[in-house]
From TrEMBL:
Domain Response regulatory: 3-120
GO cellular component, as recorded: cytoplasm
Modified residues (4-aspartylphosphate): D55
GO MF annotations in UniProt: DNA-binding transcription factor activity; sequence-specific DNA binding
Entry keyword set: Cytoplasm, DNA-binding, Phosphoprotein, Transcription, Transcription regulation, Two-component regulatory system
Protein's name according to its UniProt entry: DNA-binding response regulator
Main location: cytoplasm
One Gene Ontology biological process: phosphorelay signal transduction system
Organism phylogeny: Bacteria, Bacillati, Bacillota, Bacilli, Bacillales
CDD domains xrefs: REC_YesN-like
The keyword Lipid metabolism appears for this protein: no
InterPro entries found in the cross-reference section: CheY-like_superfamily, Homeodomain-like_sf, HptR, HTH_AraC, Sig_transdc_resp-reg_receiver
Pfam families for this protein: HTH_18 (PF12833), Response_reg (PF00072)
Length: 512
C-alpha cells in the first residue's frame, strides 16, 4: 500500500484531488491532506509517507521549501509538484529540490493516474533493492563471512534479535509461494503466532528462521517436527530441511548449516521423504579422508588430471563412496571444494598462469545444495573441471576475451533492468572482483561505465525513433526508473537534457 498526503491551500482543489485518488483502482491510500507545507511537516515528524502531492504557492511554507525539507529528512519520499504555471523555471527549481514529477493545474485524472502508477513501480523497485541488500547481509552472516557484531552494525534491525533469546528452527526449502504470508496463514489456523525471517540463498532456495510456534508452557526442544511441518503446510510435498531448535542469534549459522544438510539428505531417500530434520552423520571422518586421498592420487601426476578418462574414473569413485555412506552436504562441499582448489593450484604451477576461483566458496556450496540429486551436483563440479582444463590449452588472451565477450552479451540483453555484478560473475564462474579487473583490462572502462554508455545510447535511439514515448518512459525503458536521475545523467553524458536532445536532433533531421 502506497501512503499519500496532499498539500494544497485551496480547499476545493485539495478535496477534489483526494477524491480523484480514492476513486482510482490503485494500491494507494490518502492518509492526510493539509493547507500548507508547515502543517505537512508537522505530520511528517510523526508519520512516514511514500508520496507527497503538493502545490507550489502556499502560505507559511511553499512547495519548494517542503520539498527541500523532505529531501533532507526522507529522500526516498516521492514528491509530485502541482502548479498553475507551466514554465521552465518552475520545473527546473522543482527538479533541483528533488521533485519526482510535475503536474499542471487543473489536474488531469489520467495524468495523475500515470504519475501515481510510476511512483508505485518505483517503490516496488526500491523494496526489491532493499530486499536484495537484506538477503546479502543475512546470507553473508549465515555462511560465516560476517560476525554477529558486524551484522548488527550494518543492519540495525538485528540488534533486537541479538539482545534476546528466541527459540526457533531454521528451514531450507524451495517455496513456490510467498513463504512469510503462507506460514502466517497456516499458523493462524493452528492458533500459533510465528515470527519469521526470510533469506533468499539462491534464486531457487530460501531459508526461513521460524519462531513462536510452541505453546507458552512447552519446552522448545521437545516440540515435534510434525507440528512444524503442519505449520509450514507440507502436505503439498514440499522438500524441506529443518535444523534442531536454536535459541540465540549467534547460533543461526549453525542452524543454517543443519537445515541445508537436512535438505540435501533428500539425495539419499529416493524421493520417499520430503521433510527431513537434522541428525548427526553416522559415518566416521575417515571416510572423508579416503575421498581426499583419491583426489590426491589423481592430482599427483599431471598426465592423470589432464586425461579425461582418469577424471571420469575419479568421479565414479567419489560418487559410489558418497552414495554408500550417504554423505552430508557439508562434507560433499568440502571434498569437491578441495578438488577444485588443488586442481587450480597444480594448473598454475604447471603453466605459470593463474586460474581464478569459479565463484566464492559459499556460493559454490549453495549451488551444490540446489541440485535435486547428488549425482547432478558431482557432474556439475566435474563439468567445471573439464572447462578449467580446456582453458589451459587456449592461446594467451583468448580466455580473457571470451569472458569479457560473455559479460557484454549478458549486459546487452539485460541493460533495461538492474544488473548485479555477482550475477555476471556467476555466469562466467569467476569472482566479482576478477570479472571487474578483466573487463577494465580488456575494454579500458568499468562495467558500470559500459552499462551507462549502452543505456544512454539506447535512450538516444528511443528519443528519436519513439516520439510517442515521454522522456521518463524512455528512462524506464533503458533501466533508469528515477526520472530526475535519468535527466541528470543524460545531461552529464550528452551535454543536454533528453527533451532538448530530442527537439534539437529532430530539427536537424527534418528535410528542407
Amino acid at each position: 500500500m502506497i501512503r499519500i498526503i496532499v498539500v494544497e491551500d485551496e480547499k476545493a482543489i485539495r478535496i477534489g484531488i483526494v477524491s480523484m485518488i480514492e476513486r482510482m483502482d490503485l494500491d494507494v491510500q490518502v492518509i492526510g491532506s493539509f493547507g500548507n507545507g508547515l502543517e505537512a511537516v508537522q505530520f511528517l515528524t510523526k508519520q512516514a509517507v511514500d508520496v507527497i502531492i503538493t502545490d507550489i504557492s502556499m502560505p507559511r511554507m511553499d512547495g519548494f521549501e517542503l520539498a527541500e525539507y523532505v529531501r533532507q529528512h526522507d529522500p526516498e519520499t516521492h514528491i509530485v509538484i502541482l502548479s498553475g504555471y507551466n514554465q521552465f523555471d518552475y520545473v527546473r527549481n522543482a527538479l533541483r529540490s528533488g521533485v519526482s514529477d510535475y503536474l499542471v493545474k487543473p489536474v488531469n485524472k489520467k495524468e495523475l493516474h500515470q504519475v501515481l502508477l510510476k511512483c508505485i513501480e518505483h517503490k516496488a523497485q526500491e523494496r526489491l533493492r532493499k530486499s536484495k541488500k537484506t538477503d546479502l547481509l543475512l546470507r553473508s552472516y549465515l555462511v560465516g563471512e560476517l560476525k554477529a557484531d558486524q551484522l548488527t552494525l550494518l543492519w540495525d534491525s538485528f540488534v533486537t534479535y541479538q539482545q534476546r533469546e528466541m527459540p526457533c528452527v531454521c528451514v531450507v526449502g524451495s517455496f513456490s509461494h510467498a513463504p512469510t504470508a503462507y506460514v502466517k496463514q497456516r499458523a493462524s489456523a493452528l492458533h500459533a503466532a510465528p515470527e519469521i525471517l526470510v533469506c533468499s540463498l539462491t534464486s531457487n532456495l530460501q531459508m526461513l528462521i521460524v519462531a513462536g510456534i510452541w505453546d507458552a508452557d512447552e519446552e522448545p526442544a521437545t516440540a515435534s517436527y510434525e507440528r512444524i511441518a503442519l505449520v509450514l503446510g507440507l502436505e503439498n510435498g514440499c522438500r524441506l530441511g529443518l535444523s534442531t531448535v536454536i535459541t540465540r542469534m549467534e547460533d543461526w549459522p549453525r542452524g543454517f548449516s543443519e537445515a541445508m544438510s537436512a535438505y540435501c539428505q533428500y539425495w539419499h531417500t529416493n524421493g520417499k521423504q520430503t521433510v527431513i530434520h537434522y541428525e548427526e552423520p553416522s559415518y566416521p571422518r575417515s571416510e572423508i579422508t579416503v575421498m581426499v586421498s583419491l583426489i590426491d592420487g589423481l592430482l599427483h601426476n599431471t598426465s592423470n588430471w589432464m586425461n579425461p578418462d582418469e577424471r571420469k574414473k575419479l568421479k565414479g569413485h567419489l560418487y559410489r563412496r558418497a552414495k554408500r555412506i550417504e554423505i552430508r552436504w557439508e562434507d560433499l562441499c568440502r571434498v569437491l571444494g578441495y578438488l577444485l582448489y588443488q586442481l587450480r593450484s597444480r594448473m598454475s604451477d604447471a603453466t605459470n598462469r593463474t586460474f581464478h576461483s569459479q565463484g566464492e566458496s559459499s556460493d559454490l556450496d549453495l549451488q551444490i545444495g540446489e541440485h535435486a540429486a547428488m549425482l547432478d551436483a558431482i557432474e556439475d563440479i566435474f563439468g567445471r573441471i573439464d572447462a578449467i582444463v580446456a582453458e589451459m590449452n587456449m592461446e594467451s588472451g583468448a580466455y580473457e576475451r571470451k569472458v569479457v565477450g560473455t559479460v557484454k552479451k549478458i549486459i546487452d540483453q539485460a541493460y533495461h533492468r538492474e544488473i548485479e555484478l555477482s550475477e555476471l560473475a556467476n555466469q562466467v564462474y569467476l569472482t566479482a572482483n576478477y570479472v571487474s579487473f578483466l573487463f577494465r583490462k580488456e575494454t579500458g572502462i568499468t562495467i558500470t561505465e559500459y552499462i551507462m554508455e549502452l543505456r544512454i545510447s539506447k535512450a538516444k535511439e528511443l528519443l528519436l525513433t519513439q516520439l510517442a514515448m515521454k522522456t521518463y518512459e524512455v528512462g524506464q525503458a533503458v533501466g533508469y526508473p528515477d526520472a530526475a536521475y535519468f535527466n541528470r545523467l543524460f545531461k552529464k553524458v550528452v551535454g543536454t537534457t533528453p527533451r532538448m536532445y530530442r527537439e534539437q536532433t529532430h530539427v536537424l533531421h527534418v528535410p528542407n
